[in-house]
């Protein structure tokens, strides 16, 4: 999904953010100081930096300024406990791409990260394919061959998660957690229902791609694979 550098001097918060991002299939590196952030930005070549403003040695805004001065265009999402307009503008002025004010929800942070990654990706980078299936994250379009397939937002999210994990069996619980979020109060029958919807739409235009692993879950794979 991408490489994220998390720069946060509070160990508990750094671990919480890193764990949530890894759960979303991101590769995560953590730094606790501005100096470490600058060094690891060069070493790990991240796709995005989550950068706390109030670091113990260098302000996050200064870290961002130095990265930009060195020619780095890596997107930066600031974490700040400050809510003043001038502080938010200051972060964006030095080259930040977005900011999230503490306290924040992990869901909000992940949504902001995904939005920045989409916005800063080169044209066409949002397209993912499997066999004759193409999913475009930028336009939310789905194609099988030349045929466009209209999906609801939930169907799209379900298909996208299966596509991210093509060849791996995803349990109903994993699908519930990733597609319907962690606080969903329903049962796993909703997964079976939406898998049925997806199959009906996809199978009209080619061989089946979503397969059932009895009593476990579902997998996106080619028909001939076992």
TrEMBL record:
* SUPFAM superfamilies in alphabetical order: CheY-like
Carrying 4-aspartylphosphate, the residues are 52
Tell me which PROSITE patterns the record gives. Answer: OMPR_PHOB, RESPONSE_REGULATORY
Which residue ranges does the record assign to the OmpR/PhoB-type domain?
125-222
Q: Which SMART domains match?
A: REC, Trans_reg_C
User: Which one of the record's GO molecular function terms can you name?
Assistant: transcription cis-regulatory region binding
| Gene Ontology CC annotations of this record | cytosol; protein-DNA complex
Instruction: Give the annotated DNA-binding region, as residue ranges.
Output: 125-222
For this protein, the record's Pfam families field holds: Response_reg (PF00072), Trans_reg_C (PF00486)
Domain Response regulatory: from-to ranges: 3-117
| InterPro entries (alphabetical) | CheY-like_superfamily, OmpR/PhoB-type_DNA-bd, Sig_transdc_resp-reg_receiver, WalR-like, WH-like_DNA-bd_sf
Q: Does the keyword Transmembrane helix apply?
A: no
Report the record's Gene Ontology biological process terms.
Answer: regulation of DNA-templated transcription
- Keyword field: DNA-binding, Phosphoprotein, Transcription, Transcription regulation, Two-component regulatory system
In Swiss-Prot or TrEMBL terms, this protein is called Response regulator transcription factor
Q: Supply the source organism for this entry.
A: Nonomuraea mesophila
């Amino acid at each position: 999904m991408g490489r994220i550098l998390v720069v946060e001097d509070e160990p508990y918060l750094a671990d919480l953010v890193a764990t949530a991002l890894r759960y979303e299939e991101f590769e995560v590196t953590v730094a606790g100081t501005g100096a470490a952030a600058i060094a690891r930005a060069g070493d790990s070549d991240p796709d995005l930096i989550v950068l706390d403003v109030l670091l113990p040695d260098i302000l996050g805004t200064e870290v961002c300024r130095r990265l930009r001065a060195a020619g780095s265009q890596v997107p930066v999402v600031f974490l700040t406990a400050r809510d003043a307009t001038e502080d938010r503008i200051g972060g964006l002025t030095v080259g930040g791409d977005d900011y999230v004010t503490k306290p924040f929800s992990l869901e909000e942070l992940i949504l902001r990260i995904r939005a920045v990654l989409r916005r800063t990706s080169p044209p066409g980078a949002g397209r993912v394919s499997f066999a004759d299936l193409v999913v475009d994250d930028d336009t939310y379009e789905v194609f099988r061959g030349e045929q466009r397939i209209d999906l609801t937002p939930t169907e799209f999210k379900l298909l996208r998660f299966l596509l991210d994990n093509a060849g791996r069996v995803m349990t109903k619980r994993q699908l519930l957690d990733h597609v319907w979020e962690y606080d969903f109060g329903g049962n796993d029958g909703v997964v079976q229902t939406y898998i049925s919807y997806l199959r009906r739409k996809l199978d009209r235009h080619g061989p089946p791609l979503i397969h059932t692993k009895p009593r476990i879950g579902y997998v996106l794979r080619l028909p001939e694979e076992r």
